Amino acid sequence: MPNNEMNHALSFLLFRLVVMSTYERRMIEKWLKAGNRTCPRTQQVLSHTVLTPNHLIREIIGQWCENHGIQLTNSNHVNEQGIAEGEHHHFVSLLEKTSSSTLSEQKAAAKELRLLTKKMPSFRVLFGETSHAIPKLLKPISGSGNTNNLHLDLQEDVITTLLNISIHDNNKKLVAETPMVIPLLMKALRTGTIETRSNAAAALFTLSALDCNKQLIGKAAALKPLIDLLEEGHPLAMKDVASAIFSLCVIHENKVRAVKDGAVWVIVRKIMDGLHVDELLAILALLSSHQKAIQDMGEIGGVTCLLSIIRESKCDRNKENCIAILQTICLYDRTKLKDMREEENKHRTISELALNGTSRAKRKATAILERLNRVVNITHTA
């Protein structure tokens, strides 16, 4: 074999060996979209499905093709973030259609953006890296306040896309600080399909992962529509709404707002009805550091409700939350000590928890028992 042919064969063999460990992006995406979660060569389960462009391999392929007079097509060029040019062009085209005067084009574009941002992380990234992308997405539903002219399917797709975008950590601050976002999420909490309302709550929960966003959302008075939706009690929305309220109330300012907006009354009633007790008790435990929350609980019969949960529940976490709230009530409202003493005399509920509860529950229960005993001793002395 002539030397040039041998060199060509050897270089081609090297080329084949180098690229055997990598795959074309288009084919990987096709493999994953088909529902596969294993390596197509080894059949091992993939630890994740995030695609990383192999720039080194691309350079080697390009150099080999150049040396051997082969033209390498560049129709699917990938930028530094791993986003294909074709994806970017399609994304920009869809955004333009959402601003179209044709309703059918707006709906079709919003529907496709919803699907793409759900399935492809790269499209979530594009929203954060493309100027005015979020305002363009929201334009079809950001008109006048007249809900009669609102197309519910279009609103649902846009709000759900906004939720999908917010999942990407780098987008959270940008999304929340876009002026029309929080008002439109608040509007969506009150109007539209139940899926729209639930997804609006989920978006607020996702955005509230940042403390600065908690403050923005609270100042915008978004807790009130969340509490109103919680009070409605629709099964599809309850968990998302409860998660959003809990996350927002981690900061003190929002606890104050939630209590003022009637959260305690709504939550205690739902707990009494046996609805989402785990999540709602966690919120109530957060709010109980506010003195007015204690007052509200006393007025609505919260002490009796909490004691019955401790007595009847099998969930250690719920018992912990209940006894923690009751201990705070002991500090702020001495009038409720009588109810606790009657419960103790009748069922020994708190004593039982002090003996058999978790370590945290034991500490709280013991502290209440000590306080009850001090009150009894003082009464006898007097």
CATH architecture of one domain: Alpha Horseshoe
Helix content range of the residues, please?
Answer: over 70%
Using the alpha-carbon principal axes, give the shape.
elongated
Q: Overall pLDDT, averaged?
A: 85
Low-confidence stretches: 17-21, 378-382
Number of helices: 23
Protein name: RING-type E3 ubiquitin transferase
Catalytic activity: S-ubiquitinyl-[E2 ubiquitin-conjugating enzyme]-L-cysteine + [acceptor protein]-L-lysine = [E2 ubiquitin-conjugating enzyme]-L-cysteine + N(6)-ubiquitinyl-[acceptor protein]-L-lysine
EC number: 2.3.2.27
Enzyme class: transferase
Show the helix and strand layout:
Blueprint lengths: L2 H17 L5 H9 L21 H13 L17 H14 L4 H17 L1 H9 L3 H6 L13 H16 L4 H6 L3 H10 L3 H14 L3 H9 L3 H10 L2 H14 L3 H9 L2 H10 L4 H11 L3 H10 L1 H11 L3 H17 L4 H11 L1 H8 L2 H23 L1
Helix pairs in contact: 1-3, 4-5, 5-6, 5-8, 6-8, 8-11, 10-11, 10-13, 11-14, 13-14, 13-16, 14-17, 16-17, 16-18, 17-20, 19-20, 19-21, 20-23, 22-23
Structure description:
- By secondary structure, the protein is mainly α.
- Among the domains are: 3-67, Zinc/RING finger domain, C3HC4 (zinc finger) (Herpes Virus-1, 2-Layer Sandwich), CATH 3.30.40; 273-382, Alpha Horseshoe (Leucine-rich Repeat Variant).
- It has 23 helices and no strands.
- The protein has helices at residues 3-19, 25-33, 55-67, 85-98, 103-119, 121-129, 133-138, 152-167, 172-177, 181-190, 194-207, 211-219, 223-232, 235-248, 252-260, 263-272, 277-287, 291-300, 302-312, 316-332, 337-347, 349-356, 359-381.
- The chain is elongated and about 95 Å long.
- Mean pLDDT is 85; it is low at 17-21 and 378-382.
